[in-house]
Each structure stands twice: as C-alpha cells, then as structure tokens.
Amino acid sequence: MIRLISMRLALVLSLCLALPHPAAAWTEPARGTADRRAMMDAMRPLAEMNLGAPVEFVVHTLRVDGSAGFAMVSAQRPGGGEIDMAQTPMVRQQGLDPEFMDGANMQALLWKSGQSWAVAHWAIGATDAWWADPALCPQWAAVTPEVC
C-alpha cells in the first residue's frame, strides 16, 4: 500500500514538473509602438528636470499589463553621450551626492489612462529596488512579479 502511494505521489510530482509554467502576463511594447513612445515621453520631463536636457533612454526593461507599466532605463545624451552626474540639476541644485547614486539609471511605475501614460512613482540613481515595496504591489504586481 505504501509503495502504491509513493508511486502515485511520484507520478503526480513528475506530471506537475512537466507541465508548462504560466508565463508572465505582462508584455513588452516593441520599438516604434505608441505605448513605448508614450511611456518614454511620460518619463522624459522628469529625467530632463533632474539630469538636464536633452536626454534619450536606453531601455533595459519595459513591461505593460493593462493599465500598469514598469520601466528600467538608462538616461544618456542624444547619440549616446554619458551624463556627467556632478553637473546635473539634481546634484547642483538639490544637493544630492553622485557618489551615493547609481548613475543616470531611472526606474518608473506608470499608469495608463486612455491613450496617455503618466508616471506614478519614479527614481533616478536609486541604489535599491524601491519598487519592491509591498505597498506598491496591489497596483503593480502584474508588471513586477519578481518582487510582489
């Protein structure tokens, strides 16, 4: 009897492991799409206000699920020029210390309303995963499943 139970348990476990795991529900807006452009356009004023204009983004992570969005980007000058953090408004005017920042890396949680995207939470130069805050999970868990 115990052998039969063990065999059934082994069969059930092997079937569970063989089943495909559900994929993430979020999608990545492709280059040139309206969503991708609108998300970058929503983030750009915040980046330019803090890093100085003009900026363009190198996208590392971009996720959308319904009206929720998550972005991880690096800001740079057009054409790939590096941003001198010591000369940025966030350092010169706000007194932030670039030695305690992760450069011009920016993360944002975005919300879509109609065809427009708005930035709800963001950071530039963060050295922690602030988007892992459990208080943010109810709205953004679908685009940050690793931390929610």
Structural summary, described in words:
- The longest helix is centred in the first third of the chain and has 18 residues.
- Strands 1-2-3-4 form a four-stranded antiparallel sheet, covered by helices on one side.
- It has four helices and four strands; from the N terminus they run H-H-E-E-H-E-E-H.
- The chain has 148 residues and is of the alpha+beta class.
- It is 29% helix and 25% strand.
- A hairpin with a 2-residue loop joins strand 3 and strand 4.
- The N and C termini lie far apart (42 Å).
- The N terminus is likely disordered.
Question: What's this, in brief?
Answer:
The chain is an alpha+beta fold and 148 residues long. 29% of the residues lie in helices and 25% in strands. The longest helix has 18 residues, at 34-51.
Question: Helix fraction?
Answer: 25-40%
Measured by DSSP, the beta-strand proportion falls in: 25-35%
The largest β sheet comes out as: 4 strands, antiparallel
The number of helical runs is 4
SS-based class? alpha+beta
Oligomer: single chain
Determine the mean pLDDT.
Answer: 88
Q: Helix and strand succession?
A: HHEEHEEH
Distance between the termini: 42 Å
Biggest β-sheet: strands ordered side by side in the sheet: 1-2-3-4
- The best one-word shape is globular
